Amino acid sequence: MTNTLLDWCFKRSIWVYHVNAGSCNGCDIEILDVLTPYYDVERFGIRLVHTPRHADALLVTGPVTRQVRERLLRLYEATPDPKLVVAVGSCATCGGIWHDSYATLGGLSNVLPVNIYIPGCPPRPEAILYGVAEALGLVPKKVAGQIFVEA
Amino acid sequence: MFKHVISELKEALVCLEAGQVTLKYPYAPHSPAANFRGKVEVDVAHCIGCGACANACPATLIDIKDAGEGRTLFFELGRCTFCAACRDACPQKAITLSSQFETATPNIADLQIRLVLKLVHCRECGQVVNTRRAVDLVREQLGRDFGGLAWLDLCPDCRRRMSLQDPDLVLEVMA
């Protein structure tokens, strides 16, 4: 009973903490866009909070630079369970154009367990909305990998 | 005080007039602009595995490896910046950027494309010449035999060696 209630609550009011892990600010601006009345992510109960201790989800942008790694781990530990980790943008997804740079760790998956990847450079605000909704299980996944072997 | 209330009322009226501005997106479908660049799609029927896309890609997300009988083209679309340099570089127009933007996924393998194309090996030394599709394309575009079609399955080094051994060609150069 308590668990179902908790699940219900969790699906309806995700509080996110936004972490910039070496992003160029492109994705951060799109995240800001999602919070504006035009896209209005607060109608789903999603809102930005100022401390990871209040957050249900970490919204991470950027390829994770060496400098930010330790802070990111501390933020992750400060977030109470259960938590979601959302990688926003191509950099957080796979390292982007910095994937082989000495200064970055080549993507968020090398540092934290990621629940959902939202690729894009930057992702459209609609894509971020879709990704968050997908993480909550409200919409289905639309992409699939492709393998072709010539006969 | 009174002035303040008046201004608040005015603001409320303005809001009423504006109506609903919020996008209906997750509940209603949304289609991006006509020239929007979304997820990369590869037409497997037309790709010849030349590697022009891999040279052009700034994120170097296209990895090309020759192993055994096949050339593997591996697209790691997670780091795609949607610049469309691959589309512009492709001589076969096999790469298109779709309008798909809902690419969020919990599994990174959903953002990968793997193509394996058959290779042609040099009949003299066994080195890789090109993919079978590329060799076939050259044969098709040459149209008629210039006497060189038999060399299509030779690597550049062996072609040079063969041309030195060809008396007709040597005479032609000397004449």
Brief overview:
The complex is a heterodimer of chains A (151) and B (175). Chain A is α/β, with parallel strands linked by helices and 151 residues long. Chain A has five helices and six strands.
Number of domains of chain A: 1
Q: Say how many strands of chain B there are.
A: 6
Query: What is Rg of chain B?
Result: 28 Å
- How far apart the termini of chain A lie comes to 55 Å
Characterize the structure shown.
The complex is a heterodimer of chains A (151) and B (175). Chain A has 151 residues and is α/β, with parallel strands linked by helices. A 5-stranded parallel beta sheet of chain A has the order 2-1-3-4-5. Chain A has one domain: Rossmann fold. Chain A is globular. In chain A, helix 2 links the parallel strand 1 (15-20) and strand 2 (47-48). Chain A contains 5 helices and 6 strands; from the N terminus they run H-E-H-E-E-H-E-H-E-H-E. Chain A has helices spanning 2-12, 26-34, 66-78, 90-94, 125-135; strands at 15-20, 47-48, 57-61, 84-88, 116-118, 146-149. Chain B has 175 residues and is an alpha+beta fold. Chain B has a single domain, classed as 2-Layer Sandwich (Alpha-Beta Plaits). Helices cover 32% and strands 19% of the residues of chain B. Chain B contains 6 helices and 6 strands. A 4-stranded antiparallel beta sheet of chain B has the order 2-3-5-6. Chain B has a two-stranded antiparallel sheet with strand order 1-4. In chain B, strand 2 and strand 3 form a beta hairpin. Chain B is elongated and about 105 Å long. The chains are: A alpha/beta (151), B alpha+beta (175). At the A-B interface, helix 4, strand 5, helix 5 and strand 6 of A face strand 5 of B. Strand 6 of chain A pairs parallel with strand 5 of chain B, so a sheet runs across the interface.
